[in-house]
Amino acid sequence: MKYLFVFLIVLKTIDTFSQDVAILKYNGGGDWYANPTAIPNLVAFTNKNINTRITTTPESVAANSEDIYNYPIIFMTGHGNVFFSDEEANLLKQYLISGGFLHISDNYGLDKFIRRELKKVFSTLSFQEIPNNHPIYNQTFKFPNGIPKIHEHNKKKAQGFGLFYEGRLIVFYDYETDLSDGWEDQIIHNNPKEVREKALQMGSNIIEYAFTN
């Protein structure tokens, strides 16, 4: 029985790592489709470096679609307004408390809108800054100083915020860092190689954490 239990754990891990990711399509006028090369590049990096088997061309999934349940992690970015209807807010809530994970990358200008709309999803939860010793910074790649800074906007420090439900991190929000810009093709933002590498490593940690927690 002991060996069967171990086998089932290993099998679950393998099955989890073969799952796919999606990009959240939302209403409100914000550019949910920003950074089109970001997720494909991140997926290619994780497939190479942490042995995931994710489809390299991610699907987009609407905030009101139950297809959201097909993905262990969904990514969200943009520069402008976000709007969740009551139906969408409830669907996102059920997805997240059922084991789903949402990564939000503030592409500069998203902050005030996403904070407002997430209150529709979880009225009693507030963002907490993620401590540097949290597992999301200590997966395959180690970030002892927390989230890396990728782009400069307002001379503010890079921060990683989270929503926790019953002790589990369900939403990770990178603020004043633009992780997803660092995942894009090098020619788009002309980031140095070492900066892009840090961004991809941190993104890889997010996927690894979401797949195993």
Which tags fit this structure?
213 residues, alpha/beta, Rossmann fold, seven-stranded mixed sheet, 7 helices, 38% helix
Folded structure, characterized:
- The model is unreliable at 1-18 (pLDDT under 50).
- This protein has one domain: 3-Layer(aba) Sandwich (Rossmann fold), CATH 3.40.50.
- The longest helix is centred in the C-terminal third of the chain and has 20 residues, at 193-212.
- Helix 3 packs across helix 4.
- It is of the alpha/beta class and 213 residues long.
- The protein has helices at 2-17, 38-49, 86-97, 111-121, 179-183, 186-189, 193-212; strands spanning 21-25, 59-62, 73-78, 101-106, 128-129, 159-165, 168-175.
- A 7-stranded mixed sheet has the order 2-1-3-4-7-6-5.
The total beta strand count reads: 7
- Elements, N to C (H/E): HEHEEHEHEEEHHH
Measured on Cα atoms, how large is the radius of gyration?
A: 17 Å
**Total of domains:** 1
Number of helices: 7
In angstroms, what separates the terminal alpha carbons? 24 Å
CATH class: Alpha Beta
| Architecture per CATH nomenclature, i.e. the level-2 architecture | 3-Layer(aba) Sandwich
The CATH superfamily is known as Domain of unknown function DUF4159
How helical, in percent, are the residues? 25-40%
Sheet with most strands: strand arrangement: 2-1-3-4-7-6-5
What about the largest sheet? Answer: 7 strands, mixed
The poorly predicted ranges are 1-18
Care to give the gist of this entry?
This protein is an alpha/beta fold. It has helices at residues 2-17, 38-49, 86-97, 111-121, 179-183, 186-189, 193-212; strands at 21-25, 59-62, 73-78, 101-106, 128-129, 159-165, 168-175.
